[in-house]
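User: Sequence in, structure out. Go.
Assistant: Echoing your sequence, followed by the structure tokens.
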Amino acid sequence: MTLLLFRDDPYARSCAARIEAVGERGIRLDRTVFYAESGGQPGDTGTLRLADGSTIAIVNTRKGDGPDEIWHVPAPGVGLPAAGAEVTAELDWERRHRLMRMHTCLHLLSAIVTGEVTGGQVSDGKGRLDFNLPDTQLDKAHITAELNRLVAEDHPVRPRWITDEELAARPELVRTMSVKPPVGQGRVRLLDIEGVDLQPCGGTHVARTAEIGAVEVAKIESKGRQNRRVNVAFRG
């Protein structure tokens, strides 16, 4: 399995690693700073730098069969090294940081809009959440103002862990209908935005809400009789 360095330090931009396996799914390392696509957050991109200075472009990162099995997907047509080679894994940090900012922003959105989350997607520079709100009218200007208020208040953002049993005793923490937190490993990772939001999440996030920057609600859409989609984007 792969040691997931981003789980403890989402600001780590690179790491020394060893190639454990190479196959149709890509390249598996013994450790990585690359986040694998899951929970609505895209997989990271970047490069693997070999000892001779040559590089392999990584165009996506995906999960494998096990909970900590990560595959780095190389660009098509790239020659692949053999297992056992030493590499330096280097993120496309600017893209990753934008995804971290937007993912944290969507947690703020889920704290402002009261309703079960039926879907969502983090994208580069924008994101969305779908809510089960059959009889609710949402106000773009109000939600935008509330988002920017929480951003400006600069709340600390910290991960913490609880046991499977503690999560089962607090079902109100799980607000996503489409993505359930992984259980069966003994513990579940929570994201705690101090005084604002607490819910299971395995994604990467900024350390304080002010780091998100100014945002706006770009559009609110009706997706069926009950679903309301709120689209958010960075300003500027």
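User: And one key feature?
Assistant: The domain at 96-234 is CATH 3.30.980.10 (Threonyl-tRNA Synthetase; Chain A, domain 2).
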